[in-house]
Amino acid sequence: MTNDSSFASLGLSAPLLKAIDLQHYTEAYPIQAEVIPAALAGKDILGIAQTGSGKTASFVLPILELLTKTPAAKSRYIKALVLVPTRELAAQVGEVFQQLGSKLPQKIKTLAVFGGVSINPQMMALHGVEILIATPGRLLDLIDSKAVHLSEVKILVLDEADKMLNLGFKEEMTKLFALLPAKRQNMLFSATLGKEIDSITEFLLQNPVRIEIKGETFSIDSIDQSAYLVAEERKSPLLRYLIKKQEMKQVLVFTSSVHKADSVVKKLNANGIQAVALHSEKSQGARTEALRSFKAGKLRVLVATDLASRGIDIQSLPFVINYELPRSPKDYIHRIGRTGRAASVGIAISLISPASEHHFKVIQKKMGKQIVMHQTDDLDLKGF
Hints:
Strand order of the largest sheet: 3-4-2-5-6-1-7
Number of strands: 14
Strand content: 15-25%
Largest sheet: 7 strands, parallel
CATH topology of the largest domain: Rossmann fold
């Protein structure tokens, strides 16, 4: 490890360095190396970086460091607010705060709140919270109920601001900004820059340090892509064949519909391969538990739709399988980008039926990459 990329060189205290070590982070990613010192210096930050760049730790670590140096908050008056677009991302960011704050001598209470679950337990849990991660709608509900106050917020983070605007949260965010104190530190992270991001940046940030991590955070060339041409009725046994033959211990399988996800899971479980579905018709509790088990390596196969995949951010996911192709080349890249994250190697496999062969050619053309197609007619799939 070079000194420039070591966490010890970024101005973090020993307890945080110990927690970083426990998470097996070997060296800081580019965005972390740039954001952490600027954030510790109290600067406003505009970070342009994709999911999977190590962005979350880049704001979690300085927030934890800065809050260790401030007096304890009055109950229900939070000191740091992180706004996110989805439930899954809220839970994920909350986990990172818990992990990286685990060795601090004085515990900093952190809570993630979001819709889709009962508000009452969240209202009760807000007592003593200093760092709150929230989706905008649920946060406004909690403010209306006097369960939390924003008047003493010292640090505001907008994570995946582009997605929040795309999902229509602008009005809620404007309401929330009006409740925040004028003097505070702001950090805005987005995968892209556009007119709406520019206008929020101008309104929100004071002389920000601009940090841009160019391009995708993974190289498509670093992902080992392959495809199998297979009759629709042989897809299910081929999927089981590949999982068993390649001894896949952790694999994310994509389908294009809720019904197909449930069907694939049913057949995998019936054939002794542990699998769970993740989609919009599952309860929030079931979705959270499925993600937790999969990330922890306790669940072998997670079968997800594109909508549900947005909150899946796993540092070293080895396998992604497209059981069905997505509609657009952009979604295809998003899917395979769940593997090969931030310098790790990944394998992406697509199962191509004759009906989807032309669409797969379009995806390859848009991607500028030709993928080897394996024939499967002669493959003996009996017993799989």
